[in-house]
């Protein structure tokens, strides 16, 4: 074995990649070659010094670095979903904007509007007492009746839907309502009601 | 992996788990605290942005090491022109053992802690060309196996072996007087 070969084996040996029979050959070379023995010795000490560096303490990173990492993360999920949504549904997005504007204006309206409002046909046949709206016995309301911010008392008939918004209803045993009876208390459902029904009421004081 | 689902808390745990490893790697590669901290930050940012692309057949540590290592190599390349290890080494070993510690690291504490020998090793490692420095840092300071280094750098094991051998020889010559 020449010294060049021996050097290659030395490195393999240090990498733990030398077969036992080759280890023997290398050791035989060391026995006859002081230069290679010295070289191997130096390599080994170099390696010790390198491993020794690992034990050196490194001042840890400042805590704010970790905080910065978290803070610097892009808020990608929300952003992407929104962008994708706009991209795929431009028309719906416009509709959503419209609903939002509606929602805001309707909400403010809902908060302000505390007056009794009644909507329906033949309103002059109904009895209004304060915030009480009475459908007298024997009277037939020929259509939908809507009462907002008041109490609906029905003794007669409603040939349509009865809707009470932010109020109460009292249906007498004689009452008959052919359509749906709906009570709306929350701003949200009221909003949907307003969007689906166009509302032009008659106000009573 | 939870963090993939964009779970911030899971990602924070990932940061806790790997930040020191990546910081040490970067610090040994760049020999500069501030740059090392920047690398840690950039590494996690990349990990976060590319979570969908992470191949779960691969070890996560391999993947994050690769990202961190590449960021370090990029910085080293920008920093100074590379020179060939094959060329005769310029023996500018002006060992006052001081000049090679970046000035911002020269606190009384580090001066006290680092022996002359340790400073020499640091200087020797720092003078290695990037491709050798990378394998030497991964091998000795992160104690990765040759196979693991090959996975991290996505290079054949034989290439890694050659680089470790050359790196060792380079350092041996550099440190000869101290051995
Ligand atoms: Zn020999």
Describe the protein in words.
The complex is a heterodimer of chains A (205) and B (179). With 205 residues, chain A is α/β, with parallel strands linked by helices. Chain A contains seven helices and twelve strands. In chain A, the strands form three sheets. In chain A, strands 11-8-5-1-12 form a five-stranded mixed beta sheet, covered by helices on one side. In chain A, a hairpin with a 2-residue loop joins strand 2 and strand 3. In chain A, helix 1 crosses helix 2 and helix 6 (90-112) crosses helix 7 (187-196). Chain A starts with a helix and ends with a strand. In chain A, 16% of the residues are buried. With 179 residues, chain B is an all-alpha fold. In chain B, helix 1 (8-30) runs antiparallel to helix 2 (33-49) and helix 7 (146-153) crosses helix 8 (157-175). The longest helix of chain B is centred in the N-terminal third of the chain and has 23 residues, at 8-30. The N and C termini of chain B lie far apart (47 Å). Residues 86-103 of chain B have low confidence and may be disordered. Zinc ion binds at residues 3, 6, 29, 33, 35-36 of chain A.
Based on DSSP secondary structure assignment, what is the total number of beta strands of chain B?
0
Radius of gyration of chain A: 44 Å
| Principal-axis shape of chain A | rod-shaped
How would a textbook summarize the main sheet of chain B? none
Bound molecules: zinc ion
Provide the domain count of chain A: 2
H/E series of chain A: HHHHHHEEEEEEEEEEEHE
Annotated CATH topology of the largest domain in chain B: Arc Repressor Mutant, subunit A
Instruction: Please state the oligomeric state of the protein chains shown.
Output: heterodimer
Q: Largest interface, per-chain counts?
A: A-B, 36 and 43 residues
The CATH superfamily of the largest domain in chain B is Winged helix-like DNA-binding domain superfamily/Winged helix DNA-binding domain
* Terminal CA distance of chain A: 116 Å
What count of helical segments of chain A does DSSP give?
Answer: 7
Give the second-level CATH assignment, the architecture of the largest domain in chain B: Orthogonal Bundle
